């Protein structure tokens, strides 16, 4: 059945001028990092629902994350958030990850959960608080060095709630000062990924509110600083793929935090409400990956794909599997775009022809391709089904309720 489905698929793609071997090799090399906090309990400001079997510490989070990698083959790294994942011995955590077949990915400093940060962290008008916040950034550089991570992922909750509450321009300078100190402490192979978000928890102004501010800061800091696009961090209607194309062209797109949003920073399963947006993001990336400019190509090939989701009502591991599979599916579809066809239609100024060349790839069912790919790699054809049948979900229930939460 699958063999026949794949044979038909292969024939179709050949007729469309698609090189399936290239498509498969790209699918084999993509890596999607999962977040340690996506395995813990989470909720909204109204309620955190405690689930049975949730990891009790960072070591158990890695055990769950390893399941996702084992079944999908594309999630070999796990992002950590400090101090959510604070441990006495980071080298031990690194060894634990390696023993499970995964590694520690981006290190995320957390500057939003201490009372000292009520009026901001690196942008606080109190120099002692700024010092404390900057020291935490430096501590995270050291942790990244210890665990062998090359990415530091920064997001600041800093902002104000009322006009006049603080000096916006002074805060801008303090932000740059702190990040410069951190940048100088980084090893040459490390990257600083600067994330922006237009609101929440601050509602009047946020110090790094949009991609332009993150881009400007990254430019001032230097080549090791790039912008991180969290797909949930934009106002309604924003053309995220345009931002992606622009940053790629400037060689400043460093990574993604994937999730899905309907109203705000909903942190729902990526590709659940807006799969076409995810597809169009990959379409822009693949277009840039074939650019004539080597810098743009290199940028497109070095994007850190990360999931940033907090699963409030879903079982955690299946929710992460669904997320990873959604990313893989949309990436596979984008790989089926016939770029020559798009370019020819663009050259003719054939609006509908160009639109069709892009959309038609999205409409292709890539299931036979993904199943064939997994079979080639010795992975389960249906990772979700394999997980549900594996018994792992039941085996962790003795952990009980009341595990780690953010
Ligand atoms: C902020 C954010 C940021 C944090 C994560 C937990 O909304 O996207 O990336 O580190 O959520
Ligand atoms: Mn994020
Ligand atoms: Mn977010």
UniProtKB/TrEMBL annotation:
InterPro entries associated with the record: L-rhamnose_isomerase, Rhamnose_iso-rel, Xyl_isomerase-like_sf, Xyl_isomerase-like_TIM-brl
GO terms under biological process: L-lyxose metabolic process; rhamnose catabolic process
GO molecular function ontology, one term from the record: metal ion binding
Entry keywords, A to Z: Isomerase, Manganese, Metal-binding
Top-level taxon of the source organism: Bacteria
Keyword Isomerase: yes
Chain ranges of the Xylose isomerase-like TIM barrel domain: 88-266
Keyword DNA-binding set for record: no
EC annotation from Swiss-Prot or TrEMBL: 5.3.1.14
Protein name, as recorded: L-rhamnose isomerase
Organism whose genome encodes this protein: Paenibacillus piri
Gene that this sequence comes from: rhaI
């Amino acid at each position: 059945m699958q063999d026949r489905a794949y044979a038909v698929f292969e024939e179709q793609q050949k007729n469309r001028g698609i090189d399936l071997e290239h498509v498969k090799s790209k699918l084999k090399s993509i890596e999607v990092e999962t977040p340690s906090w996506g395995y813990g309990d989470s909720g909204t400001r109204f309620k955190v629902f405690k689930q049975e079997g949730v990891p009790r510490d960072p070591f158990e989070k890695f055990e769950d994350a390893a399941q996702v990698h084992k079944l999908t083959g594309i999630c070999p790294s796990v992002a950590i958030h400090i101090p959510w994942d604070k441990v006495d011995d980071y080298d031990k955590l690194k060894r634990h990850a390696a023993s499970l077949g995964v590694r520690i990915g981006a290190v995320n400093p957390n500057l939003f959960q201490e009372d000292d940060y009520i009026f901001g962290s690196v942008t606080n008008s109190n120099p002692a608080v700024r010092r404390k916040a900057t020291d935490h950034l430096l501590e995270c550089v050291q942790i990244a060095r210890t665990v062998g991570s090359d990415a530091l992922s920064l997001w600041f909750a800093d902002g104000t709630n009322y006009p006049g509450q603080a000096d916006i321009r002074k805060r801008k300078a303090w932000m740059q000062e702190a990040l410069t100190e951190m940048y100088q402490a980084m090893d040459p192979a490390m990257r600083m990924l600067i994330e922006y978000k237009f609101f929440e928890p601050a509602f009047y102004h946020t110090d790094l509110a949009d991609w332009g501010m993150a881009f400007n800061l990254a430019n001032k800091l230097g080549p090791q600083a790039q912008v991180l696009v969290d797909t949930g961090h934009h106002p309604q209607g924003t053309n995220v793929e345009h931002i992606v194309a622009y940053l790629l062209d400037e060689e400043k797109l460093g990574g993604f935090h994937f999730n899905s949003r309907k109203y705000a920073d909903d942190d729902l399963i990526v590709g659940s409400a807006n799969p076409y947006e995810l597809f169009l993001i990959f379409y822009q990336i693949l277009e840039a990956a074939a650019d004539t400019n080597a810098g743009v190509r290199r940028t497109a090939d070095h994007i850190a794909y990360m999931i940033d989701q907090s699963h409030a009502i879903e079982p955690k591991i299946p929710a992460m599997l669904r997320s990873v599979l959604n990313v893989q599916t949309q990436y596979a579809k984008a790989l089926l775009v016939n770029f020559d066809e798009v370019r020819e239609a663009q050259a003719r100024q054939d609006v509908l022809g160009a639109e069709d060349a892009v959309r038609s790839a999205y409409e292709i069912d890539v299931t036979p391709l993904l199943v064939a790919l997994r079979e080639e790699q010795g992975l389960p054809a249906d990772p979700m089904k394999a997980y549900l049948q594996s018994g792992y979900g039941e085996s962790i229930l003795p952990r009980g309720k009341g595990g780690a939460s953010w």
